[in-house]
Amino acid sequence: MSPTPSWVKKLKPSGPQGSELLAAERKKSSIDVGQLSEFLFTEEKLQRRNEILDILKSEKVFDKSQNYFAGRMDRFETALARAKKLQNVRVENKWNEDDMYIATELISEPGPYGLHEGMFLVTLRDQGTPEQHKLFLDKAVKYEIIGCYAQTELGHGSNVRGLETTATWNAEDKTFVIHSPHLTASKWWIGSLGKTANYAVVMAQLIIKGKGYGPHPFVVQVRDLKTHEPLENVHVGDIGPKFGYNTMDNGFLLFNKVKIPHVNMLAKFSHVDPNTGKYSRPISPSLIYGTLTWIRSNIVLSAGQVLARGVTIAVRYCAVRRQFADRDAPDSETSETPVLNYTMVQIRLLTLLASTFALHFTGNGMMKLYRANQKMMNEKGAGREKDSKRGAGPEETHAGSDLLADLHATSCGLKSLASSTAAEGLEVCRRACGGHGYSSFSGVGSYYADYLPTTTWEGDNYMLTQQVARYLLKSARSVLKGDKPTNDTTTILTNFKNRAEMGAAFDILGSDEDLVAAFAWRAAFLTFEALKHRDEQKKAWNDLLVDFYRLSKAHSQFIVVKNFHDALTDSTTTQSLNSDTVALMHKLFRLNALHTLETESSEFYASGAATVRQIQLARTTAIMKLLEEIRPHAVRLVDAWAFSDWQMDSSLGREDGNVYEDMFYRASELNPLNKITIDPYPGSEVLFKGQRSKL
Amino acid sequence: MPDFTDDLKPSYDGTAILQAERDRSSISVHELSKHLLSRDGFLERQNRIVPILENEPLFNKRQQLNLSRPERYHLGLARAKALRRLVKKHGWDHEDHKMAEYLTDEMSPYHLHMSMFSTTVKEQGSEEQKKYWWPKIESYKMVGAYAQTEMGHGSNVQGLECQAKYDVKSKEFVIHSPYLTASKWWNGTLGRTATHAIVVAQLLLPDAGNNGAFLSQGPHPFIVQIRDMKTHMPLDGIVVGDIGPKYGYTSMDNGYMLFNNYRVPHDALLSRYAKVDPTTGTFRKEGHPAVVYGSLTNVRATIVMHARLVLARAVTISVRYTSIRRQFKDRDAPNDTAPEMAVLDYPTVQVRILPLLATTFALHYTGEAMYNLYNDTRASIDKGDFSSIAELHSLSSGLKSLCTTYAANGIETCRRAMGGHGFGGGSGLIGINNDYLSKPTVEGDNWMITQQVAAYLIKKMTSAVKDTSNAAEDPTDELFKLYLSDRDRKSSADIICDGEIANGAILEAFRWRAADLSYQAYHARVVQKKKWNSLLIQLHKLSNAYSEMILVQNFAKALQLSRLSPATAITMTHLFQLFSLHTIDADARSFTTTNAVTSSSLDALPNLILMLMAEKIRPHAVKLVDCWALPDYILDSALGRYDGKVYEDLYDRAHRRNPLNRTTFNVDWESDEIVLGSGDGGRHLLAKL
């Protein structure tokens, strides 16, 4: 195509320019953006991020401008080149783990070394003996071997106990034989395995003398260290294109009776005696239990940021974008209304904006609890006796007396709620951008697609809620027995039980404390209802799953509302933020809580936590007023999330508001399709002029 | 290459499982398919065309998800041309061609030529214009696009910025883009393919009283050549190109276009209804473009019918896969040796998928009703009298909004209900998700257009309040008058009595709620004079409530009239109940606040819905999706295959059909080489960035 002519280059968007519109938006509000950003992230982290951003920008390979155009092969190849370069940069600049995390967030695509860093090293470290560390971990740290974590199979995911791959102990030559007896035994979805890894930690059913001992981790070499070809009787490859995550080589893996030495079974928690073949479990795996809680808490924390990215893009664009004149405007006023002024856009975006902060504070609260708990466990160290009897789920812990159990159950429910909120919220943001939201240049679509697996991994969002329900039922039973409350959950259940005969009267519109209490009431009500179904009416577990899902959601929503409220009343908050900002945060808290309450109103009504009249007033008056009050600060509030344009890679979400110029630039200058001229007539076999058909 | 994995079998047999599912239901798939898919010979047509496409290598879908954007367009263009050749070879008519495009399941780069472009010329061109253009259009001597939407304006057509200024001296229109935001944007077929376009521009005519000034007559369509017929390069004064990658619609070249004082002759203005005197430049309207409203209603009926097939696809795939897929043992199982449970037996899965299954039928009967009404009144519509479908037209934007939202959200719900494999390319829901997600925001944003319905209902309520004496003029009027006369004495309805579902009461509840919400909106806007903007959320809910009422009414009416065999008919009634009750439960509050349903009925709903799903629908689920007769070719899904060979197909796609597995990479971070043995040092890659 011929270069863009000068008459096009001179064109400007009509009406007020995007940059003027965003400047006007920022002028309407006096919220101190820098202060709020530092409160969310700390000044030090923001500073560090800018330094890292500069380094990444200076390397050509990290240039994002062709990402939206490339096919799967090119995407993967580029991702591998980036992963390599990132390692080089890391060594050169002596980056630590936090720095790497920041860099990965900025690059914002899953990379082929991801599972080596994220799971292989961690598993070797946590589950290997000192001997195994020397043998595997030391090499892995230096990238002399590259690994992944192969647990999920074609036929089994969340149900780890159902895995089909076997590891059979062979006493004669002291080896394990790793084997895939069925097609469904194929490892599947394993990140970094498809093309990259030469080692894998393989979860397989341990079999000794014909007896099964459940799934255990084995270190298995899968590719030759020189030729990088699969080893004999190992069949490994990439599983093909996906909804998102196409820069990652998720892989499959099958074994045809592959022998590995005794030392390759990771033996920190379980051990097979090489001489007698006797199986033993020296230490209980309660640490893994902690790791899972930590991973899920992280998902909650990052969900706030993930959602904030979509909200930033949508809020900025909807402040620039204008559509239709206001029906009630005088005839002299003919200019179109910014889309963000429409209440039906506000009810979608400003409520999500409130959620970003709610999730952020909840994630912070969880991390704090987790650290406190770790500290306590390390100090005690004595709880081991009790731990050794503990199985894999919270239902088998001593509910009502165990902070860790509460933390774990809470993290399951919150992981489910937070990642669903973020994923669905991103799609809401994309649609709120109208037609242009459908363009890749919106920056929302591909990000959504990459985020989606979070709703199924580390526990499917529906499946997980069973664990929460199980824990809540157990807690309720202990409360009914008369046990003293020892944590948040048993406290609210006890309160409810004590007042059950008196009922509640919460001033949800007048008092923040009452609003939180109404959420607690509803969660407690649903817990005892579920308990009645299960214990008194003896309903089948399976028939109660929908109730359990709702119960878990109610409990998690209570935790979110409570954490948001706690964060606002905390002295660090009131000391670090201006009183204006704190007041605005209170409004966001109320919007989040009241909007949730309105959406779930039938449960609040049924439990007696709120009246029909209160719910109606919340919808027609309180929420509408909050939207109006928050609206002027919307752009500054998203600014506080401090996303760089480079990270978001979005025309619509640009900080400077030059939406249309950027879309046009990407379409006309960066778009490879425009370099091609075609033959349009069906009678002609020629497709792209001057090119031989590849089809 | 043969290897040890060739002989491996899955640990359970999907084919046998689906066979068992089919054996245990007495529904006649053949009967129900005919019942659903006979309009315009749909089923027969599909059966005829599928084998033809399956035999053409170009229409094989296996590599699509691996391709880059330019490659997908390349493939799309090749297929578009090949389809034209098939049309000739098999003597296909227009419906056949449309069926083939539907089965190919991607947007053809010729799509706008055969739809909006030709329709606009046909409907808005003068007889003379039609005579000139039609032979060229039919023979594809030219390829046309439809350029209305701009970068800065979509739904608000009156706000378009592109201008067509009439120059009396030269008798030409000067088409011009005064701003960057005046650039045409999103227009299909325009980016790389079209030689011509309908350009919708503000018609500016000289103001007789005011020398040198111009007056706008609003947006009008012009037919404009944009590229050279030989070199296919843009003509001088026009910049046109493709807008780049999107969430979906990869094969389509949605375009942008700008004009620099570009001159077109007087007869470029499509002038069936709007005429400009060539010498004086005065404007004259002729006739009434009511036909356009008629065909718009028809278009919306098509959207609803398409939505049902899209949703049926997602439901078919997820029902088949979750019937086969096993996960965890039942916690109440008596012993350890119990097999794992089919995922579709979990209520948490049923509650997501089975209401959507019921929704496919609800959409079907409303789509049918819209078509029937349009066809029955076509003769009077063609004469410009569209009073008989005026109401449907006004309400059809609400139906478009609700039905496409159902389908778009339903695809994603089904995808997630399938767990991890739903995310993979083998799910068959990636492309459809990507493509269909455009629907909630195109052809009227789903949130924006509900304002039209609400405005109409407020108007109707206002006149019903003013005058209750006259006979009802249409169904809405009838409902509102009934509502107004009963308003003070009506008590809420028991839709469940002693565990039995009262179908008649369900209908009444939906009608009452819709009327009461209309009254509330009327009261807020007309009596209390509240700001329109402050009511938008309420109005959106009103539109949805009204559309839900239409869906429920049409569903019930169709079941009364149908002549299905008793076994099938009873299941259809259960589907009707599931759809209605699930809709009520999902918005229970609005049924309480409008006093439409008793709270004892609402309390009983959740359990009743679970019972309906588990006992009445679940046993027939596989056969009910079979009835939609979606061929494996269009499903393109390992998980949703008719024969249940889920795992074999997933593995085949990953192992044997995946181009990434044909390359070995150099993974050592200290080496710049990316493809092992290429010795390239990553240079070709950097060159592409």
Explain what the structure shows.
Chain A: Pathway: Lipid metabolism; peroxisomal fatty acid beta-oxidation. Chain A: FAD binds at residues 152, 191. Chain A is an alpha+beta fold and 695 residues long. Chain A folds into two domains: 145-283, Beta Barrel (Butyryl-CoA Dehydrogenase, subunit A, domain 2); 289-638, Butyryl-CoA Dehydrogenase, subunit A, domain 3 (Up-down Bundle), CATH 1.20.140.10. Chain A is 53% helix and 8% strand. Chain A has 24 helices and eleven strands. Chain A has helices spanning 6-9, 18-28, 33-41, 43-57, 72-93, 97-107, 114-127, 130-141, 286-320, 343-380, 384-387, 403-432, 445-451, 464-481, 488-499, 512-536, 545-569, 571-576, 579-599, 601-607, 612-630, 634-639, 645-648, 659-670; strands at residues 149-150, 166-170, 175-179, 187-190, 199-208, 211-221, 234-238, 251-255, 258-261, 271-272, 279-280. In chain A, the strands form three sheets. In chain A, strands 1, 2, 3, 5, 6 and 9 form a six-stranded mixed β-sheet that branches. A three-stranded antiparallel β-sheet of chain A has the order 4-8-7, with no helix packed on it. In chain A, a hairpin with a 4-residue loop joins strand 2 and strand 3 (175-179). In chain A, helix 7 (114-127) packs antiparallel against helix 8, helix 10 crosses helix 19 and helix 16 runs antiparallel to helix 17. The two termini of chain A are 23 Å apart. Chain B is α+β, with helices and mostly antiparallel strands. Chain B has four domains: 56-106, no CATH class; 116-287, Beta Barrel (Butyryl-CoA Dehydrogenase, subunit A, domain 2), CATH 2.40.110; 292-624, Butyryl-CoA Dehydrogenase, subunit A, domain 3; 661-689, no CATH class. In chain B, 52% of the residues lie in helices and 9% in strands. Chain B has 23 helices and 13 strands. Chain B has helices at 14-23, 29-37, 42-54, 69-90, 94-104, 111-124, 127-138, 290-324, 347-376, 378-382, 387-417, 430-436, 450-466, 475-486, 503-527, 532-561, 566-586, 588-593, 599-617, 621-626, 632-635, 646-656, 683-688; strands at 144-147, 163-167, 172-176, 184-187, 196-206, 214-225, 238-242, 255-259, 262-265, 274-276, 283-285, 496-497, 500-501. In chain B, strands 1, 2, 3, 5, 6 and 9 form a six-stranded mixed β-sheet that branches. In chain B, strands 4-8-7 form a three-stranded antiparallel β-sheet, with no helix packed on it. In chain B, a hairpin with a 2-residue loop joins strand 12 and strand 13 (500-501).
